[in-house]
Amino acid sequence: MGEPAVDDRGQRVKLVFVGGYPARLWSRVSRMPPDVHRRLRERMEHGTGSVTGPTVIMCIVLFGGWLVIAIGLRTPIVSTLKPITGLFLASMLTSLVPQLTAIALLALWGQRRFNRRLIDGAVSLGHCPSCGYMLKDLPIDRDGCATCPECGSAWRPRA
Q1: pLDDT tens across 109-149, in order?
Q2: Which of 27, 30, 37, 155 is most buried (CB neighbours < 10 A)?
Q3: 126 C-beta neighbours (distance < 10 Å), count
């Protein structure tokens, strides 16, 4: 669901699932040990910057755009669409379309932030975010990335 993640070379990758099941079951579906899974979930849930400046600005811009369309432009839009669609459908379009657009944009924004936090957390713990393979002690390529031998995705080491 959502936008696909990319590795540090720009290739699309599927990320590991950091789900709600117990960490002791994690070793059955990933190469990450249960303690690494537990620490990664903890970073995802209690990481820094849960509400960042750009997120707040995006919410304000989307809400302002919705207000302009739903309140300021509602009368001209409804009067234009009313002969074509009828009053009810024209009113619903001016109310629902901006709301659904804002919800979709916020969902994509959240998916990007989630992917980036998962990638940063897994790589900083020394594991591939795509397959869970241990990245420690792998040779670094010329572009500064360590290529995972299991899945072929490339990640730059993070502190």
Answers
A1: 777 877 888 888 888 888 888 888 888 888 998 988 899 88
A2: 37
A3: 17
